[in-house]
Amino acid sequence: MSRDWSGPSRLVTNCWRWDGLLLLCKKVLHVLFCKILRGEMEDGEAWTMVQKSGNQFVVNGQPFYVNGFNTYWLMVFAADQSTRGKVTEVFQQASAVGLSVCRTWAFNDGQWRALQKTPAVYDEDVFKALDFVMSEAKKFKIRLILSLVNNWEAYGGKSQYVKWGKAAGLNLTSDDDFFSHPTLKSYYKAHVKAVLNRVNTFTNMTYKDDPTIFSWELMNEPRCESDPSGDKLQAWIEEMSVYVKSIDPKHLVQIGLEGFYGPSTPNRAQYNPNSYAQQVGTDFIRNHQVLGVDYASAHIYPDSWISQSLSDTHIEFTKSWMQSHIDDAENHLNMPVVFSEFGVSSKDPGYNSTFRDTLISTVYTNILNSTKKGGAGGGSLLWQVFPEGTDYMDDGYAIVLSKSLSTANIVSLHSKRLNTYNSLCSWKCHWACKKKHVADNFQFHEEL
Ligand SMILES: *[C@@H]1O[C@H](CO)[C@@H](O)[C@H](O)[C@H]1NC(C)=O
Ligand SMILES: *[C@@H]1O[C@H](CO)[C@@H](O)[C@H](O)[C@H]1NC(C)=O
Ligand SMILES: *[C@@H]1O[C@H](CO)[C@@H](O)[C@H](O)[C@H]1NC(C)=O
Ligand SMILES: *[C@@H]1O[C@H](CO)[C@@H](O)[C@H](O)[C@H]1NC(C)=O
């Protein structure tokens, strides 16, 4: 019996197998082909450098519109074993709602748990803490914007550089000498060099080669009030952006500006939050036209710039501030603009969580409006996301995702929407590979 039946049945089975195999092969080849074209490896997405193409950020041949956050104190927390776990916790919670970029400090000058104790003298344990932050970020597929010095006194800042200069016998009269005195500029350059050439003790990777870094930021919120013409700060930006690129041509560079319109564009002053904003020595358009600067930044703080009392004015300001900066990035700068800090303080009069959610939604809607068109609204970063139990660091702006479910939902939905656009719009491997995605995501698409 078996002799009579085994032959044909084996044939049929083999035939089915063969057919199935062909189909499977085709499918595998197709997927592989797409992955190769996109520069992906077999174990998921390749971890490659963020680049810029015109108005957009690009990773692995796809646009990279950013949903991100700030947590400035990661290095300092990582420096102490008792608080190190908070770093992992915040990355874990952020990645759970799809946040993919974190902005944090790669400086702590002359203060408690200083990274740089005195010019060019580093605390190795604190540097190892920064190494840890970077290696943890990568585990959660989060990229870092690393800021290199502060305009403000927190964590040292330009005033600490001036103190160091005075201690070395220099005749310095203003904190803004940071931008112009040759010795202070050489201190800053030495810090830049030390950080960019650092070899990570956890990953063995040199910082300047590590795709975990989204970009460098020259300074957190530079202002140079001693020279409202803007020339002094402009010269500093010109010198330092080229200096960073001379050491690290691979990573993107941004300045770290709040985004105020300055003397070079009097017609744009109407978009500033107040008349003082034009007097702080910064200039959104002119500063960002500097060689070596890859993308623009603006912050959004109507509660500190317009009025502490919350109202609809803050929402209206947010819309026009974003729109004017996105328009300028497209029409004058040809680069993406990232709203790298935005938020509202729970200490403001009239605060409630509904207002905060409305503000966040407003920012996200405006980013999506740009994303849909492939525009220059490159992304936004919440100020700021904290894990639980770090309230003593809170300046009023902290968002604890695990305790703010409605906010977490808004953040998560925005991540999904941005990811949809990011994955829909691959240039190298268009619709053929993405048909399924398109079908799956069509509803998303429509609902936007
Ligand atoms: C320090 O610099 C200021 C302003 O540049 C100048 O007026 C002053 O004479 C200088 N002092 C000394 C001791 O050189
Ligand atoms: C880093 O390099 C050291 C010494 O060459 C080696 O022992 C270690 O395994 C390396 N670590 C990683 C994560 O590659
Ligand atoms: C929340 O705060 C805003 C601004 O102060 C106010 O207009 C609004 O009525 C408040 N909403 C609730 C539900 O309390
Ligand atoms: C979307 O962008 C266009 C200009 O590009 C602007 O006119 C429009 O007001 C924006 N819509 C929203 C909802 O922000």
TrEMBL record:
**Where, subcellularly, is it found?**
Secreted
**GO MF:** mannan endo-1,4-beta-mannosidase activity
Domain Glycoside hydrolase family intervals? 49-383
Q: Where is the signal peptide?
A: 1-30
Which UniProt keywords are given for this protein, alphabetically ordered? Glycosidase, Hydrolase, Secreted, Signal
Q: What class of enzyme is it?
A: hydrolase
Q: What is its EC number?
A: 3.2.1.78
Q: Which GO terms describe its biological process?
A: polysaccharide catabolic process
Q: Does the keyword Disulfide bond apply?
A: no
Q: Name one GO cellular component term.
A: extracellular region
One Pfam family recorded for the sequence: GH5_mannosidase
InterPro entries in the record, alphabetically?
Answer: GH (IPR017853), Glyco_hydro_5 (IPR001547), MAN-like (IPR045053)
Reaction catalysed by this enzyme:
Random hydrolysis of (1->4)-beta-D-mannosidic linkages in mannans, galactomannans and glucomannans
Protein family membership: Belongs to the glycosyl hydrolase 5 (cellulase A) family.
- What is the name listed in the Swiss-Prot or TrEMBL entry for this protein? mannan endo-1,4-beta-mannosidase
Q: What is the lineage of its organism?
A: Eukaryota, Viridiplantae, Streptophyta, Embryophyta, Tracheophyta
